[in-house]
Amino acid sequence: MTDFGLSKEDITSGTAARTFCGTPEYLAPEILTRGGHGKAVDWWSLGALLFEMLTGLPPFYNTSDREQMFKDIMQTELVLPAYLSAEAQSLVHDLLCKDPAMRLGGSSRDAEEVKEHAFFRNFDWTLLLRRQIAPPFVPALESEFDTKYVDSVLSR
């Protein structure tokens, strides 16, 4: 999952990146403080995306005040809806940990931490890598330009 318009070359030089870029709703606290960041920002963004997919809006979303949204990202405690399963709540909570060193995936174990989370306990990562998992929905497209599954708001 990458926005190639914002991607950078490998940052394994041992120094933290200091780029301030990205979708505002998905920015990790360490990007907002401009203190330098590593790969843990990507796990934060995954948590924000999962939160939005599960609830309909990004965490800390504020349509009228971007500065308040940034303040909330850095300071406000995350509130998870009660209708989410315990595993989903735990996954999103752990990915949206404000401390990058404590964030799920933020250690040297990186993705292995995330893959071992209880949310994925019935998921076979080997089958995924082999492309042997059937998708739950396969769109019936008439051409590569078919937009019938795109929201009307997006296709205007």
Give a description of the structure.
Helix 2 packs antiparallel against helix 4. It is built from 6 helices and no strands. It is globular. It has about 160 residues and is mostly helical. It has a domain at about 25-125: Transferase(Phosphotransferase), domain 1. About 20% of the residues are buried. Helix content is about 30%, strand content about 0%.
Short recap of the structure:
The chain contains six helices and no strands. It is mainly α and 156 residues long. The protein has a domain of 102 residues: Transferase(Phosphotransferase), domain 1 (Orthogonal Bundle), CATH 1.10.510.10.
Question: Descriptors for this entry?
Answer:
156 residues; mainly alpha; globular
Determine the structural class based on helices, strands and strand pairing: mainly alpha
Radius of gyration: 17 Å
Would you count the extended β strands for me? Answer: 0
Distance between the termini: 25 Å
CATH overall fold name of the domain at 24-125: Transferase(Phosphotransferase), domain 1
The percent range for helix content is 25-40%
Outline the biggest β-sheet: none
**What's the tally of helices?**
6
Quaternary organisation of the protein chains: single chain
Averaged pLDDT: 84
